[in-house]
């Protein structure tokens, strides 16, 4: 019989934006693995989990924010092995991720490694930043007869422009250092609306209107953009 482990989406940052199912699983877990934001140990995920789990049940892990695939793969393998070892003590084990575990999430790669070790992963969906941003701003993502696309922000203005023209609504995630590319594309397209939400669900969340405001460079981190074309 396969051993199983839970992969839980925590939502965008507000501790109240997790599902009842996620809360119940967290509260009955013996060990909960949470990601660190950086090497100093900061962790938004840990702050959320602490609302439902005692600190002594929490273990943290860190993945560097880089594109060194070999290094990241080794870290995924190492974490999966650690999770398996804890699971073999008959503990109820959970690992969590911000947002949803199937949307641009490290959970996807951890899950693959666990499956190779014969571990069944039970996913618990989280409220994505996409849903949270549209609810916060009141901007409908799509209505009857429309469509929308979700993308990691491309590297060029032309690519961003083409994607905006492709859909009625376009969502860009992982904006990061490419914020200037997004702003330039928006100004060239003149869409119906274009908003950037930074640190959604957290105390310092900020909304920028990209059609008229140029956000500071740091606004690209922990942010999501929703563009509605005029088409």
TrEMBL record:
Endpoints of the signal sequence: none
GO aspect biological process, one term: methylation
Entries under InterPro entries matching the protein: 4pyrrol_Mease, 4pyrrol_Methylase_sf, 4pyrrole_Mease_sub1, 4pyrrole_Mease_sub2, CobI/CbiL, CobI/CbiL/CobIJ_dom, Uropor_MeTrfase_CS
Top-level taxon of origin: Bacteria
Pathway(s) the chain acts in: Cofactor biosynthesis; adenosylcobalamin biosynthesis
GO MF, one annotated term: precorrin-2 C20-methyltransferase activity
Keyword Methyltransferase part of the UniProt annotation: yes
EC code: 2.1.1.130
Annotated ranges, domain Tetrapyrrole methylase: 5-209
Keywords for the protein's UniProt record, in alphabetical order: Cobalamin biosynthesis, Methyltransferase, S-adenosyl-L-methionine, Transferase
PANTHER family: COBALT-PRECORRIN-2 C(20)-METHYLTRANSFERASE (PTHR43467)
Protein name (database record): Precorrin-2 C(20)-methyltransferase
Gene3D superfamilies: Cobalt-precorrin-4 Transmethylase, Domain 1 (3.40.1010.10), Methyltransferase, Cobalt-precorrin-4 Transmethylase, Domain 2 (3.30.950.10)
Family the UniProt entry places it in: Belongs to the precorrin methyltransferase family.
């Amino acid at each position: 019989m396969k051993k199983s482990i839970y992969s839980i989406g925590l939502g965008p940052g507000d501790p109240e934006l997790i599902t009842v199912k996620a809360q119940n699983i967290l509260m009955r877990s013996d060990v909960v693995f949470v990601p660190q934001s950086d090497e100093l140990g900061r962790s938004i995920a840990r702050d959320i989990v602490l609302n439902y789990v005692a600190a002594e049940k929490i273990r943290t892990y860190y993945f560097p924010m880089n594109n060194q695939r070999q290094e990241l793969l080794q870290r995924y393998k190492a974490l999966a092995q650690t999770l398996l070892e804890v699971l073999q003590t008959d503990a109820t084990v959970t690992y969590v991720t911000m947002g949803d575990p199937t949307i641009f999430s490290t959970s996807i790669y951890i899950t693959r490694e666990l499956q190779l070790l014969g571990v069944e992963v039970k996913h618990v969906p989280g409220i994505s930043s996409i849903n949270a941003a549209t609810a916060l701003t009141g901007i409908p993502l799509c209505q009857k007869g429309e469509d929308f696309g979700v993308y990691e922000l491309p590297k060029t203005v032309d690519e961003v422009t083409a994607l905006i023209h492709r859909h009625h609504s376009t969502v860009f995630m992982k904006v990061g250092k490419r914020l200037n590319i997004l702003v330039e594309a928006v100004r060239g397209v003149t869409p119906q609306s274009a908003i950037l939400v930074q640190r959604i669900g957290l105390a310092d969340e900020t909304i920028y209107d990209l059609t008229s405001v140029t956000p500071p460079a740091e606004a690209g981190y922990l942010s999501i953009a929703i563009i509605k074309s005029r088409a």
